[in-house]
Amino acid sequence: MPKAIYDHIYKDLKEKIETEVYAYQEMLPSENTLVREYDCSRNTVRRAIAELTADGYVQPMHGKGVRNIFQPVEQAAYTVGGIESFKESSIRNKKQAYTRILQFTDITADEKIAKKTGFRKGTLLLYIQRLRFLNGIPLILDHNYFLKDAVPGLTPEIASQSVYEYLEGTVGLAIATSKRTLTVEHVTQIDEKYIDLKGYNCMAVITSQTFDDNGIQFEYTQSRHHPDYFQFQDVATRKTR
Amino acid sequence: MPKAIYDHIYKDLKEKIETEVYAYQEMLPSENTLVREYDCSRNTVRRAIAELTADGYVQPMHGKGVRNIFQPVEQAAYTVGGIESFKESSIRNKKQAYTRILQFTDITADEKIAKKTGFRKGTLLLYIQRLRFLNGIPLILDHNYFLKDAVPGLTPEIASQSVYEYLEGTVGLAIATSKRTLTVEHVTQIDEKYIDLKGYNCMAVITSQTFDDNGIQFEYTQSRHHPDYFQFQDVATRKTR
DNA sequence: GCCGATTTGTCCGTATGTATC
DNA sequence: CGATACATACGGACAAATCGG
């Protein structure tokens, strides 16, 4: 949807960095040069650069210029970043994806579930348990809790494809922010039943609360990953104090 | 350092959200109201709100307002977020911290180290191995590689306190961005020698490349954490396509 | 369903400050 | 010291989404 100017500049610069039109450690053109190049205001250029900075692509230096610090990284089989569906991640990671539904039932949040998921006690939820395959190997076990009201008409058939695609497309739900916590946990009996951990006795676990554009939490998910095929990436910037 | 207006507004709103001056799911005052309240321009208010959004504190909704979606989360013993030193994290997590130096030697980057750390082959580095204690229990094993030129006068005594404090204070180095990768790996002999893993055969591993404000990478670190005391938090926003 | 008021999103031009060279 | 480059801030304009009458 975004045909915004800053977004166009952001994408254009991003591609030029990735394809090494600007080399690692090289300076980008100055803001004023970019203003002339894209025929827009300086604020608009600055917004695009701010996004590239947040991505860890560039580093603006007061009085000097903006340096390209992008280095292509060696990637594991499955790399997590941003809010992506399993399907989207599989495509980005160039893996063939398949999903098997293990459970698909309505439940009402009791005290324990409410505390864990962040939903209120008594809320009607849809619980889905899914096994995720990459290139034919079972690697991820997902436990999803969806707000029942937010996902009308969701069927096991849809859940075996892409729930997000269905929500954003058919239902018209807009996914906005996701709060995630990453931990390492002991394997469970369910994990062992479905996934060959090859000696590991633990898994990488991402738990997330996802909100729609009305600020309503519609999903709680625990995603349990095989250690060998899991990688999580992040860029942090230090805040001056 | 930042006495910027937007930063003042950001901190002020952040505190009001944390202390529930605005309740969970409640709307913040409109941008125009805040403009009058802080007697500044709308762009300045918007910048503060943008930072709160990135923190996962609020959710702006087109045409409606800005909603507070902050919920205090249950924290593990050691929670990672932003660029923080071990000392800073310990203080935030309210733990008593102690560091024991296991190794402290100069090395020159060979082919293998260069590939792993991102430094060029032949670069002179300072390698430090440190064991981190929280409340008297050894929980984290750090392998640091510092660019020797960037950390002049660094001694084991300083390394047992806070390297970042020394770099930012005495050396005058400004830490800017850090690229991190999180994985789960098998324990090593060194891990087992120093840390009681209580049945786990793996650890949570954060590898990071850290850059100064000149865009120069001055550090590569591998930080190996005890699973029971480790937690990593993140907020992601979905980009419209 | 329409209209006007409100609210957030995008963009512009300008001015001033600060750091670097 | 002057020129260049990024950082902060202002005020204004219009668009797009929402909401109430």
Cross-sheet strand order for the largest sheet of chain A: 4-5-6-9-8-7
Mean pLDDT of chain A: 91
Q: What percent of residues of chain A are in strands?
A: 35-45%
Q: Please report the total strand number of chain A as a whole number.
A: 10
Highlighted features:
homodimer; Chorismate lyase; 10 strands; two-stranded antiparallel sheet; Arc Repressor Mutant, subunit A; 241 residues; globular; 6-stranded antiparallel β-sheet; alpha+beta; DNA-binding; 8 helices
Structure report:
The structure is a homodimer of 241-residue chains. The first copy, chain A, contains eight helices and ten strands. In chain A, the strands form three sheets. Chain A has a six-stranded antiparallel beta sheet with strand order 4-5-6-9-8-7. In chain A, strands 1-2 form a two-stranded antiparallel ribbon. A two-stranded parallel ribbon of chain A has the order 3-10. The longest helix of chain A is centred in the first third of the chain and has 14 residues, at 5-18. The first copy, chain A, has helices spanning 5-18, 31-38, 42-54, 86-92, 111-117, 156-159, 163-171, 189-194, and strands at residues 58-61, 65-68, 78-80, 97-108, 124-134, 137-147, 175-186, 202-212, 217-225, 230-237. Helices cover 28% and strands 35% of the residues of chain A. Chain A is globular, with a radius of gyration of 21 Å. In chain A, α1 crosses α3. Chains A and B meet through β7, β8 and β10 of A and β7, β8 and β10 of B. Chain A binds a DNA duplex (21 and 21 nucleotides) through residues 4-6, 30-32, 40-44, 46-47, 49, 60-66.
